[in-house]
Amino acid sequence: MRELLLSLVAGFLAAMVISFLVLRRPLHILLSAVHLLKEGQYSARSNLPASGEIGKVAAGFDAMAQAVENTHAELMKAKYAADAANQAKSEFLANMSHEIRTPMNAIIGMAYLALKTDLTPHQETYLNKIYLAANTLLGIINDILDFSKIEAGKLNIENAPFFLEEVFSNITTLLAQKAEEKHLELLFSFAPDVPRNLMGDPLRLGQVLTNLISNAIKFTPTGEITVSCVLQEEMHTWEDAKARLYFTVRDTGIGMTDEQKSKLFRPFTQADSSTTRLYGGTGLGLTITKRLIEMMDGEISIESELQKGTTVSFTAVFQISPHNGQSTDTLSLSGTKVLIVDDNETARTVFQEMLIGFTFAPTAVSSAFEAYEQLMLADQERKSFKLVLLDWRMPEVSGIEAAEHIQRMDLKRRPAIILVTAFGNSELQNKAEQIGIQHVLYKPINPSQLFNAMLEAIHTGEKLPFSSQNGMVAKAPQQFTGIKVLLVEDNVINQQVAMEILNHEGVHVETADNGQDAVNILMDRPYDFHLVFMDLQMPVMDGYSATRLLRDNEKLVNLPIIAMTAHAMSGERDACIAAGMNDHLTKPIEVEKLFQMLRRWTSINNDSLSRHDASQATNEDMADPGQSRAACTAQPDLTDASSGDPIAAPSAGQSAQSPSPVGQESGNSGQHPDLPPLPGVDSVAAVARLGGNVRLYTKTLCMFVKSAPSHEQELDAAFAQADKQRLCRAAHTLKGLGATVGASALASLAAGMESDINHTDSLPDSVAVEELKKAMGNLRYIIATSGLCGQETVPALSPGSPGGDEEREKFKEIAAVLTELLESDDAGAPEYAAGNAIVLAAVLPAEALTSLTESLRLFDYDTALRIMKDAQQ
After folding, report:
1. What values do phi and psi take at 801, rounded to 5?
2. Which of 497-501, 581-585, 637-641 is least confident?
3. Dihedrals phi, psi of 18, to nearest 5 degrees
4. What is the average pLDDT across 260-268?
5. φ/ψ of residue 220, rounded to 5
6. How does strand 160-163 pair with strand 197-200?
7. HSE (CB half, 13 Å, CA atoms) of 637?
8. Beta partners for 160?
């Protein structure tokens, strides 16, 4: 019995051991592998033999783990590819932003400066529209960048003082013409209690309204668009007061179905794919609009009915400025009787609301005949109307005809007349003046415009406080007298624009051409300047390095330094802050932002000015300065932000592809009437960028002729020494020079080389260098033989050199084509000759070359033809 019991116990223990070995241990190993896989160790396996039930389970697990590991590897590969694509997109956006923004600096700046001069009314109107249209183009660029920022969660809203009606005035200038082209009435309606002086982001508000109104115009074939603004809520705290404004854009357009409305806020889509073909558009605007509204603590909603119209409403919260009063109650015009004559019911309602807000007494009628009746009745009752707002385009009797009739009526007191129209033009203005009407208003009209026009019409001479009647550039007195600024900028165009804008406002400006010059000036005179505007990419020393050196000097630690750059990407701003700069100003320079920088960093609102009174700025989202480096600069890999070049840099790998020689692409080039022909050179655009200064442009051309040999030597030396940084700087310089004088072929070729150097590990080949030298030689020849620079010679194109077989063969081809052009009196002959100047100079004798050049310059084709025929014998 005892032996049996011992046998049973031994058997039980043996079974337990076998169970552990056969079951529990494999299960433990399998569970451990599962845990490791769960923790993200995708290489975990059980590695158990595939025998028995547990072995089969383990084998299945190992197969699953292998599949998970493979899938994870593929996902990581896709993630890295997506990250790389996103980075490439960001770099592309930064570069494209730069290439477009840089020439716009000259357009916006020069338009602004021109508006400061004495102009005729028509000239001022045209320039104002150029100025605002350029800013609209800038807004389109910002849209592209905004979407990228939205994706990255880095879109910011500013908080600056603004006047609400200026926002609407800018919209009027931008969109009224579009509405007029479709014969649509565009109307603005403000509730009387809406605060006008606010704190917020006027650019973003304008962006939202412009997009919504543009869509309304686009999708409205006939009828009207009404934009209204009412005060939904006023919120007061012990710190400030805020207003929630309710905006509505209502149209009588094609409308939408519920299904179409559901697609509206998807990026890159439209309500209906057919509308893309019919109406155009990227489908991006509403996505940005919705996000901007949400960032202004608001919401957007849409109501629409197919073929009956759409109403888009949104709210936005703004801080109310403490100086928010309007002076209407001080003008002693309360109760003034005004007659509104307009066949459009909405327009009559809008005008009535505005006039009631001014405490006037309006009466509205829908036709000229009703107006005559009201005028006679009021005159008999000795309650005459003081003013008539008369719509131009009405059925039966036009506004012009009605005005003439009113002027002939037997009234004891004849009212002043303001003609109102949504479809105005210069012809209408002339007709109005011919019958004695001096005031014509163009819809949409904001309250300030209406009020000022009414006051002028009834000869009170008083106006509401407003920056300008059209919400555009106002001729303000100097506001920054006494401020001293150091402008560090290597580009002559950008220097001129910034200096003239600042000088006009009383700022004393000194310039430095590069970072090293700025360091020398400031180290020697650390307390002479209130502020520094610092370009980023410059020869000798860039803006980043200069700023770091300045911050090492305890006397300059608090000197405000503002970066000036054509890049708008957030990473560059962070890099500027990391280098020690206080703020970041994007080119093209927006005048008001430039002035805001001056106010912010020089304490302009204080009674007295003091140097270095701004504390060092901080940035919570400071970028890591240890980014990739470009060959041209020891800073983040960004294309030049200072050259002012109106060209787009080719992508890497394209620099060796030569564009047409200078002179062969002048179909797109403008020839300035005060200058001799410069084939292939856009002298019109170049002179415009210099503010119309032909003398300065001529001087720049001649300086290029003199400096060209040194640039060629620099290219050769840098290439011979395989010095990437030196070669990149030489290409960068030629890019800027080409752009400055309007030679897009040279500028584009140099930009391509610079881009290649920045984006590849190897030097450009000798062909690319020779192509760049050839383009420079062609340009030099064109300038030197134009007669602008006296007896300048061009050694690189010395005539009569023997020329090899290749040159002679090329000469035969060129001579045949040029002869044919001359025989047919083709105006392209000078361009063709200039584009092939090097070959002609290499083969023709000196006397023949000089005669050919002069005869082509004077368009003496007979003499030029004789020279070419003699040369081919």
Report:
1. -65, 145
2. 637-641
3. -60, -40
4. 68
5. -120, 105
6. antiparallel
7. 17
8. 200
φ and ψ at 806, to 5 degrees? -65, -45
SS (H, E, C) 304-353: EECCCEEEEEEEEEEEECCCCCCHHHHCCCCCCEEEEECCCHHHHHHHHH
What does the alpha-carbon distance between residue 513 and residue 517 come to, in Å, rounded to a whole number? 7
What's the CA gap between 723 and 366, in Å, rounded? 78
- Lowest average pLDDT, out of 63-67, 711-715, 856-860, goes to 856-860
pLDDT at site 278: 43
Q: Which of 872, 866, 863, 862 is nearest to 840 (CA)?
A: 872
Cα distances (angstroms) measured from residue 873 to each of 65, 645, 669, 862: 85, 44, 35, 17
Instruction: Enter the tokens of residue 283.
Output: 């489908």
CB 312 within 8 A of CB 238: no
Under 8 Å CB-to-CB from 681, ≥6 apart: which residues?
A: 662, 666, 669, 741, 742, 743, 779, 782
Q: What is the pTM of this model?
A: 0.44
Least confident of 170-179, 397-406, 435-444, 799-808: 799-808
Which of 526, 577, 509, 516 lies closest to 549, judged by CA?
516
User: Using CA atoms, how far apart are residues 108 and 113, in angstroms rounded to an integer?
Assistant: 9
Give DSSP secondary structure letters for 131-185: HHHHHHHHHHHHHHHHHHHHHHT------EEEEHHHHHHHHHHHHHHHHHHTT-E
- Report d(CA 336, CA 188) in Å as an integer: 22
Residue type, 398: S
Residue in the structure block whose two tokens are 């200072």: 642
Rounded CA separation 85/91 (Å): 10
Give the pLDDT of residue 276.
40
**How many CB atoms are located within 10 Å of the residue 34 CB?**
15
Residues 185-213, buried b or exposed e (16+ Cβ, 10 A)? bbbbbbebebbbbbbbbbbbbbbbbbbbb
The sign of the dihedral angle between the CA atoms of 844, 845, 851, 854 is positive
Q: Of 532, 531, 540, 543, which Cα lies nearest the Cα of 567?
A: 543
Residue with tokens 């949504």: 422
For tokens 């070419």, the residue is 868
CA of 245: how far to CAs of 237, 293, 705, in Å?
Answer: 17, 12, 60
With a pLDDT cut of 90, the percent of the chain lying above it is 15
Count of other CB atoms within 10 angstroms of residue 117: 11
Which burial class, exposed, middle or buried, applies to 120 when counting CB atoms under 10 A from its CB (0-12, 13-18, 19+)? exposed
Contact 181, 217 (CB under 8 A): no
> What's the confidence (pLDDT) of residue 650?
33
Give the tokens for residue 647: 């060209």
CA proximity to 753, closest of 741, 775, 768: 768
Average pLDDT over residues 220-245: 88
pLDDT-based confidence at residue 637 (cuts at 50, 70, 90): very low
- pLDDT tens digits, one per residue of 397-411: 888 999 999 999 988
Residue 80 pLDDT greater than 80, yes or no: yes
pLDDT digits (tens, 9 = 90+) for 568-607: 555 677 788 888 999 888 765 666 778 878 888 886 444 4
Q: What is the DSSP string of 528-597?
A: S-SEEEEESS-SSS-HHHHHHHHHTSGGGTT--EEEEES---HHHHHHHHHHT-SEEEESSPPHHHHHHH
Q: What is the pLDDT of residue 21?
A: 55
- Coarse DSSP helix, strand, coil percentages of the chain, rounded to the nearest 5 percent: 50, 10, 35
Please, what is the angle between helix 52-115 and helix 25-38, to 10°? 10
Q: What is the dihedral of CA 484, 488, 489, 495, to 10 degrees?
A: 10
* C-alpha 392, offset from chain centre: 37
Please provide the DSSP assignment of 236-256 as one string. Answer: E-SS-EEEEEEEEEEE-S---
**Distance of alpha carbon 114 from alpha carbon 187, whole angstroms:** 31
